[in-house]
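Fill in residues.
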């Protein structure tokens, strides 16, 4: 179930949102605005928010099942990571639902977090399958968000 949820939130649903926008507007929508909107909504907003809620109320799932540690002292650290994830996720949701001017800052925070987390996972040896999936999807989310930010910056500098 975890793997399916991660693939849906990090890959399938954001791409489906972009395709929906393209079909709905017959291709007239700005592609990068759509990518930014849907990836911030699903990857930064929904994914990080739900991960944070899980980490706050079930820290042992992250510490044991994903990170592979049986140290009960890790639970407090995981819960505090959960607080940060809920905060970033809330910003992503608010940006896409009510304050579109926040999409770029939400994408920046999400790209930095996912990139650093993903590359930290890469360095770890003997990852279990769930951590490996988190590694690849974190890096994928970071790359897409970084591309959106790059295009947005270049476009704004040309204006």
């Amino acid at each position: 179930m975890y793997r399916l949820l991660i693939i849906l939130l990090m890959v399938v649903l954001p791409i489906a949102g972009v395709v929906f926008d393209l079909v709905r507007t017959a291709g007239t929508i700005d592609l990068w605005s759509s990518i930014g909107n849907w990836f911030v909504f699903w990857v930064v907003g929904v994914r990080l928010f739900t991960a944070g809620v899980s980490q706050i109320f079930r820290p042992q799932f992250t510490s044991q099942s994903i990170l592979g540690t049986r140290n009960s002292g890790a639970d407090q650290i995981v819960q505090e990571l959960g607080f940060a994830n809920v905060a970033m996720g809330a910003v992503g949701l608010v940006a896409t639902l009510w304050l579109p001017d926040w999409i770029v800052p939400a994408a920046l925070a999400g790209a930095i977090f996912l990139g650093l987390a993903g590359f930290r996972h890469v360095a770890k040896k003997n990852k279990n399958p769930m951590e490996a999936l988190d590694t690849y999807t974190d890096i994928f989310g970071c790359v897409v968000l970084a591309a959106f930010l790059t295009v947005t910056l270049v476009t704004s500098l040309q204006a």
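The radius of gyration is 16 Å.
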